[in-house]
Amino acid sequence: MKMKIQKSRRPSVNVPKVIVCAVAIYALLVVLMYWLMGEQLHLRESRGNFEMPAAEAGTVELCQGAVVEQSFTVKIQRLQSVSVQWGTYYRPNAGTMTMELYNTLDGSLVVSESFDAAAIPEGGLTTMTLETPVETVYNVPLLLRIWSDSLPGSAASPLMSVSAREDGYSLSLNGVPTDGVLCFSVTGEDYIWTGLHYWEFAAGFGVLLILAGLLVWLRWKKGKHSYVVNALIAVKKYKFLIRQLVSRDFKTKYKRSILGVFWSFLNPLLTMAVQYVVFSSLFRFDVPHYPVYLITGIVIFNFFTEATNMALSSIVGNAGLITKVYMPKYIYPLTRVLSSLVNLVISLIPLMLVVLFSGIIPTKAYFLVIFVLLCLTVFSLGVGLLLAAAMVFFRDIQFLWGVLTMIWMYLTPIFYPESILPDNVAWVLGVNPLYYFITFARTCIMGGISPEPIVYVQCALMALGSLLVGSLIFRKSQDRFVLYL
Amino acid sequence: MSKTMIEVNDVTMRFRMNNDKILSLKEFVTTAIRGKLNYNEFTALSHVSFEVKRGETLGLIGRNGAGKSTLLKIISGILKPTEGSIAVHGNVVPMLELGSGFDFDLTGKENIFLNGAILGYDEEFLKAKYDEIVDFSELGQFIDVPIRNYSSGMLARLAFSVAAIVKPEILIVDEILSVGDAAFQEKSHKRMMDLMGGGTTVLFVSHSLEQIREMCKRVVWLDQGQIKMIGDAEEVCGAYVL
Questions:
Q1: Smallest Cα–Cα separation from A168: which of A181, A184, A187?
Q2: Could you list the residue range(s) of the whole structural domain that residue A293 is in?
Q3: Tell me: the pLDDT tens digits for B108-132?
Q4: ipTM value of the model?
Q5: Does A316 touch chain B (CB under 8 A)?
Q6: How close B24 gets to chain A, by Cα (Å)?
Q7: E strand or H helix at B12, and its extent?
Q8: Shortest distance, CA B123 to any CA of chain A (angstroms)
Q9: Residue A156 and residue A295 in one domain
């Protein structure tokens, strides 16, 4: 079967200009990302961090002459801090406690610091922080030595876990080897290989982009059809239509309501307020800046449900048009997702208000949220295409999807901290794209820093994967839509 | 020599019709398991071939279910033929059924742009022609009123005005010429004649042989998916009546 429709008024595209623009934008983005990602581009929280074991007992009363020694090794490239947890016997103590960290390979002192015993509460921590991270202790045997000048009766005691066992760790109390592990933690950073070679990667992709551009340009010059040029023509041709449809969706959404567009603004705020009251007073989740935590999750998840639900009905709902006018059918789900995006952008205003109200100072990392919103949109578009196609053949999908999004919502840490998930359910987070998107946004908004580079790749891959699956299925089935409408 | 605008080459269109149209997943699975998923093939068009030259007005006649609408849908690209090929050289503008491209919550003005975009016009063109469209529709101040408040005659005038303002290369008209009041009917009829005189190729479906005779030179008579007769309007219409 051959199908050939030549439009005589085919819009022309200035391919060389587009390619040059694309390369220029790429170069700009590369530099911008380098600046925005800052330190997080090449440093990440070390995977070798040693978490503090749960305290079970005291060690010894750390008075003059007593010494607690814990030897250990950690795979941390840049050691930053060592903390110890203390028991006070529930009494005021006095004196000075000293923590020393030795490199037992060459016997050198890495860092030491003294703390006033009177200032330590029961279960409190003392933390030695290295102003300049130490880079020479990766996988090197280390010794943490703690002693003090307190008098008996007014000395604190470092806590320990009796049951914990770690390979290569040994604890000795006053020179006597003891089973168990001291309640201490070690944190630091690791270098990220890809981040260190950021410019090489950027240049590599840039070269690939230029080569692809040249290829497209050559094909275009020879008058051959290529996907890229066709896509550009489609964008140019249907830009106006898409804009009209998006503005239609947007205008009619609130057309006959009194508050109008203000609802886009009010909705996330009200949802957040309700959930805040419910969950902060009933469940008392211990999340810092809980309102911000909530509204970030709500805004992102609401967009996802709105976009997918609108896309779901886009083909069936426009049956009247589809059976009468020819236009590429992907336009319908696409415009629905785009009009949800307009809504999302508006709901960023209440989000920012909550952020400022909570006393968080915005940083340059806030611009990185644009990246995750882009991924989220592409992801939702992919899901939306899939649903729109499925809906034509099986109308049950609309009810099924309502249930599925509800389950999905409860499996995504929107209003609860991810730490409350039991271990046997926690794996669900790892396969939940929305969890990645929401965590990305929260890292930027609440932490004020960029996530690790790998998270960018994960988010982009999930978005593109969804788009690929969705558009393939949509493309394969779209010719049969008319027959089922 | 006039250029060929539409070539229909041995087009066959078959639909698979379930005994019952299955629309829910559960039903689909249960009938598939019971092995009752048999389809009835229905041939809407079989081996239809013809050509339409530039500036020609081709009439399509036939009983209900003869395949006229299917043929128009294939030509406008909505359906893909099961067999055969079709080549269309030019932009196709279908005259929509009343209001199918309209949003009733938007004003007449917003709908002109929306509907225009759906019909494939670009922005500059619509902006340039906007006044002309409003003038032609005779809607006056109602153009800024949401069209849910329009009467059906007003809707029809708006729809016709948007569709007919452009000089499309190929215009598809599926029985919608009787819109509005007598005066507007007169006007739209005149506009159609203008379009046809101005080199637009028109595919015209009607059950009114009178209109067909008046507007078309050539007529295709479809009967049960096949071309029963093709040729001069008078001749075909004469045979059709008999």
A1: A181
A2: 257-484
A3: 888 888 888 888 888 888 888 888 8
A4: 0.80
A5: no
A6: 5
A7: strand B4-18
A8: 6
A9: no
